Automatic annotation (TrEMBL):
InterPro entries (UniProt xref): EAR (IPR009039), EPTP (IPR005492), LGI_related (IPR051295)
Domain of life from the UniProt record: Eukaryota
Protein name: Uncharacterized protein
One GO cellular component term noted in the UniProt record for this chain: synaptic vesicle
Any Gene Ontology biological process: regulation of exocytosis
Length: 124
């Protein structure tokens, strides 16, 4: 699966691979340059999505937990943010609904799952 996203003025692609590492690449004007390889055995889906100012990327897996990564603008790469317990996801879809943000994860092997985006302020 190939998905596109923008961060600032830069253009990127997410390239998922079932066997081997999935990759994040950046457009350099004449070609794409690899920025990051992510372990992804059994991945059929790699979906970037934005919630407010935050840029996330969900990486599914048929054999282990799926992961959500958070974009680090300074490092120009994703860092592991959270695991998702969804079996064999075939898509991720961000859906803003009234006053909540939802991430839908339809599954090939089990029940589809809906996650709610919650920001917890730990600064106190």
């Amino acid at each position: 699966m190939v998905k596109h996203f923008r961060a600032g003025r830069e253009h990127f692609l997410c390239l998922s691979r079932y066997i081997g590492d999935s990759k994040v690449v950046r457009w350099e004007g004449q070609r794409f340059v690899e920025l990051q390889a992510l372990p992804s055995r059994g991945s059929m889906v790699m979906q970037p999505f934005s919630v407010g100012r935050r840029l996330y990327m969900a990486l599914g897996s048929d054999f282990s937990f799926s992961h959500v990564y958070l974009w680090d603008e300074d490092k120009q790469r994703f860092s592991k943010f959270q695991e998702l317990a969804v079996q064999a996801p075939r898509a991720f879809r961000y859906v803003p609904a009234a006053d909540v943000e939802l991430l839908l994860a339809p599954s090939f092997k089990a029940n589809s799952v809906v996650y709610r985006h919650v920001v917890v302020d730990l600064s106190l």
